[in-house]
Amino acid sequence: VRKGVTPTPVTLAIGDGANDVPMIQEAQVGVGISGREGKQAVNSADFGIAQFRFLQRLLLVHGRWNYRRACKFTLYSFWKNAVLVLLMFYYNFVSGYAGTSLFENWVRASYNVVLGVPIIAVGVFDRDVSAKDALENPELYNTGRQGLDLNAMKLIETLLSAAIHSMVVLCMMYFTLPHFISNGAGDFYTFGTSVFAWLIMTMNYRVAFLTTTWNSISLLSLAASFVMFAVFLLLYCFVDWRLRVLSAWMYWVPVHMFTTPVFWIGCFVAPALATVIDIFKAYLLLEFFPDKRDLILERASAKCLKDEDILPCARERVGLPRTPLPAFPATPSLEPTLSSTSFVFDHPEGPVRGLDSLRTADPTSGDTSLADAADGGDAGKRKGYAPSTTGDLEGGRQETQPNRPNGSSFAQQDLPSWQFVLTWRKTLAISAIVGTLLLVFGGALIGAAPSPTQQLQLQYDGPAPQHSGLQVDSNSSCVIEGRGQSTACHFRVTVKHDMSPPIKVDFVIDPFFQNHPSYLESFSFSELTGSVGDVQPSKHCKLGSEVNASGFRLFPCGLQANSLFNDTFTLRDGKTGELLHLGTDGIAWQSDLRRFENPQGYPHRLHDFSWLFQRFPTVIPKL
Length: 623
What we know:
Helix content is 44%, strand content 6%. By secondary structure, the protein is mainly α.
């Protein structure tokens, strides 16, 4: 069938006997029928059914549902990983092309674990149209036959969407970095983890956008993703012994992240902007390029809005019949049973019908032991076929319950659910809500600012300064004459606005990169915590950061401890020349002050060591 046909078709083979096994195995999809010829066909097939008529529901309903779920799962996997990689790619342009990831290694490793649960729920439970609509509109099956949901154009569209969403997060990074720096949270680990948290929010929003049918498990899966991320941060960033083994600098990072107001604003703004972009695009496609599925969803939604009795329509939308099934009269001697029949596989849209619903007043109705025995002998004697007693019938005879398919709402995918159908009213409402909230957050951020902020930008080593925000003497210059020499630079600054004390002064060098992998890995955590250890320095300290020119051991060793920026700053009153006091409180995190300390005997008992206060006397005092 497949030879000589272009493009190569996807074939399905169905059979019920051993002679059909080669055909079933050769086809891409094999379906076996369990019948009088045994189980060989079923054991060799991808799917097994009890009767040939069940093939209609297997293909048009479950086959189509699973195709669309698999396509959503696949495209989302490409999408979320593309956004992550693009953000790390953008970071290279502002990090000196050092090749360092924006996110800490173990934080980045949690990405697919944290985001795996919500999309799995979509891949298991999501459905765009009901089984009833799928059976009444068999042309919907062409979506899978023609590969409309997973092809080259869909992949290109997904990657373009990933690029747009990554640009949204990039803009958040660019505009919020100064706020992180002013709050003492602009370090590599805190800022990177904050961006990662925004990424988690945006990715979970995307799952919600892809979900057509919502049920309790869909909501729980999204909540589980956030809980998993919170538990990961709790275990990774607050357990000291884990940090000693994995990453010492992640200690208490979430505290500094959560105490930065702009972080919480970013948690809302990033997914909100993505929502507006996606919904606007989806509405344009729905309005001008609708497909058959969109028309069916719109018709079903409008039908519910116009239905006088909302209850029958609501029952139909969640997969139940518009009216409950009529109750069959039961004899007083019958006990209720949980047994169900294989009829559930071909029941159009109703709930699982148990044996009680098929019985008549005849007390022997519903007894399937004879049919079970005809299928292969005594059901109770066959291997793996254990009947269970469910009740007493007339005459003292007991009814048995053979192994039947699970008839629960979970197994039959009949959980109570709700569908979100996009309309122009919902598009307008969502856009208005998002816009209003953005204005509220923006106003709150401006109102919460304690005092005006002014920025001075200078050319640190050049013939003339470049500045903005303040008035600076244009004749001033700051040129370093030679390596190892000191230069004094004087600038006259005029503050345009009154600033209420205390006034915070931040000094930031840009570009000044300390994110090279060899730099980040060159430190000794044991030495930073006051442990001298062996005579030899730590193996993590790179060559050149172990001993000085006189042969004294550098303590602590490593590039991080021995590349201190040692410029000093003083402020004077421009009119009186009085020296203004610059406080140093709050420069270091309290969590680091509790962990790091000098070794015992510092500095007199250890004579063969070169200490930080000796190497940087103008910056580090002798404590």
